[in-house]
Design a protein that fits this description.
single chain; alpha/beta; 15 helices; 21 strands; about 30% helix; disordered C terminus
Length: about 550
């Protein structure tokens, strides 16, 4: 029998909403939300302790009036669905009591309009997955906080990686929505602060909340291949990243000729095409000392605890705009809880976002604030003062409502244990410390070229045909620049492009790779002479042109 369902919310109950893409990205978000509620209610229900073990997160001076009811919702990765859900929660239009606090969400593009709505209703919002730096602006989003660190810190980790490995340049492929654009701008800011903004080039990819257009992905992949760098950073949510990675694979870029790297949303486990030895992605530290206790709880859950009819009714799951059965995320099964592998990056932050509200409410009750008065500005101020040990580590907020965390350089490496069916395993090869700005490598990096070690492979520095390398002089950048018209290059590490001989022409205007014979357009001697003179003048111009002012990688 399921032990989760308790009495419905009453006037002496604080109603907490929890939302995310529970039907579109992963139903482990749903399971984690319920796991949080189970863990919290262990404080009052000994039958839950008997089945699931003692509470994971300590509640100092637990107040007897602490009564919190959970209401769940899905955004289904769609802004319109998310906004309707939030409005129903804030106004109690879904047959449930109105929420006084909101945990969520995942997509920054959805969190932004929802938190503007929350501001109107004076409902504090604590996100577990929205990382856009724009959300740190308290003038625009005063009621928004988050337990996941913002992308301004992830950008520092990315730039730290580039500096440590002396990466000449990166092409940054990003989704044209708040998350992708925010992270791209953040890394541009980091590079520009070092007067090296020219090392980052951007290729924006149109965002499709539904009906993904593969022709857009293929066109942008083709553009990336002409940018001159063999190193590509991917910044988009996994629902955009999966089809885009398919286009990369079709173009032969998930191979030893390229080095692909991803933001925290582009993990190898969530985008299977990228689960290749050498793939690198950035992940914030999300598993603190208490995470092992969460693992114990997770393994005691069953699908009935999440999908059971009484559970779905209690948590409002049956009122989701998209049902669990019709959602693209599927449904959890008993095998989901056989080990911890289904739990990704964001779930610990979700669990701790729930506890953020519980800790704040408990603190206010102990200060003598009646439960009915715990809402609005009083609650928001209390959340800013929260500090506790959660399963993601120590939880506390700065004056922007953000939380600092260090980042891992996660690296797909061969599975030497031979226990995993994929033949690969993700290793935490190094870290970037948010406190010190220092990179520390804990093991050798595996690269997609097949090289192993903590030096950037030469194959990733060499230029594509049609480009030359700035490799000479006092301060060589090792950047690749496109050949000017009338000159050619076979690529590699050549430090200049060669002019075509008289009577020859480059096979294309810029970025040429070979010289070809001029086409015979007329038999008239004077016309042929004019063509020859034109070819010679183009060659002279190419040899006397100054170095280009900008990198050819720039979009």
């Amino acid at each position: 029998a399921c032990l989760l369902v308790s009495a419905a919310a009453s006037d002496d109950t604080f109603v907490l909403g929890i939302y995310g893409p529970m039907t579109s990205i992963s139903t482990t978000f749903l399971a984690t939300s319920i796991a949080f509620d189970i863990d919290f209610r262990k404080n009052f229900d000994t039958s839950l302790v008997d089945r699931y073990g003692p509470p994971i997160v300590t509640m100092p001076n637990l107040h007897s009036a602490l009564n919190v009811s959970i209401q769940l919702g899905t955004s289904n990765s769609d802004t319109e669905v998310g906004m309707r859900m939030a409005l129903d929660m804030f106004q109690g239009l879904n047959g449930q009591a109105a929420v006084q606090g909101l945990v969520g969400g995942y997509h920054s593009a959805i969190s932004m309009p929802i938190t503007q709505l929350a501001t109107q209703f004076k409902v504090p919002q604590v996100s577990w997955g929205s990382t856009s730096p724009k959300l740190s602006n308290k003038a625009a989003y005063p009621w928004f906080l988050r337990t996941i660190p913002p992308d301004s810190i992830q950008a520092k980790a990315m730039w730290g990686f580039m500096s440590y490995f002396k990466v000449p340049a990166v092409t940054f492929a990003y989704a044209q929505e708040s998350y992708g654009e925010g992270l791209f701008q953040a890394i541009i800011d980091e590079a520009s602060a070092s007067n090296e903004g020219f090392r980052i080039a951007g290729v924006g990819v149109q965002y499709f909340p539904s009906n993904y257009d593969m022709s857009e992905a293929r066109a942008k992949v083709a553009r990336i291949k002409t940018m001159g760098s063999r190193m590509v950073m991917l910044s988009m949510a996994s629902d955009q990243g999966k089809p885009f990675s398919q286009a990369l694979d079709e173009a032969g870029m998930v191979s030893a000729a390229w080095q692909l790297m991803g933001s925290e949303a582009m993990q190898a486990g969530t985008v299977p095409i990228l689960n290749k030895v050498g793939y690198i992605f950035f992940t914030p530290m999300s598993r603190g000392p208490l995470f092992s206790n969460f693992e114990d709880l997770w393994k005691k859950l069953t699908s009935e605890d999440i999908n059971g009819a009484s559970v779905r009714s209690y948590y409002n799951v049956d009122n989701f705009a998209v049902s669990l059965e019709n959602g693209s995320a599927g449904m959890v099964s008993d095998s989901t809880f056989s080990d911890i592998s289904a739990v990704g990056l964001e779930e610990p932050f979700l669990f701790d976002s729930g506890y953020t509200f519980v800790q704040a409410i408990n603190s206010l009750l102990n200060q003598g604030t009646p439960l009915t008065d715990i809402k609005g500005q009083v609650l928001l101020d209390a959340i800013y003062n929260v500090s506790f040990e959660g399963i993601s580590g120590q939880v506390a907020f700065d004056n922007q409502g953000d939380r600092a965390a260090s980042y891992y350089f996660s690296n797909v490496q061969p599975d030497t244990s031979r226990r995993l069916s994929t033949g690969t395993a993700v290793r935490l090869a190094g870290t970037y410390s948010a406190a010190t700005g220092v990179v520390a490598m804990d093991m050798d990096m595996h690269w997609m070229t097949g090289s192993v070690g903590n030096d950037l492979p030469d194959a990733l520095v060499s230029c594509e045909p049609g480009f030359w390398m700035d490799s000479e002089g006092a301060n060589p950048t090792l950047m690749c620049y496109e050949c000017e018209p009338g000159t050619i290059s076979t690529g590699g590490t050549v430090s200049r492009c060669d002019a075509c001989d008289a009577g020859k022409m480059a096979n294309v205007g810029r970025g040429a790779t070979q010289c070809i014979d001029w086409p015979l357009v007329t038999s008239a001697p004077k016309a042929r002479a004019r063509i020859a003179r034109s070819a010679s003048q183009a060659t002279i111009r190419a040899l006397t042109l100054p170095l280009p002012a900008t990198s050819a990688r720039r979009a």
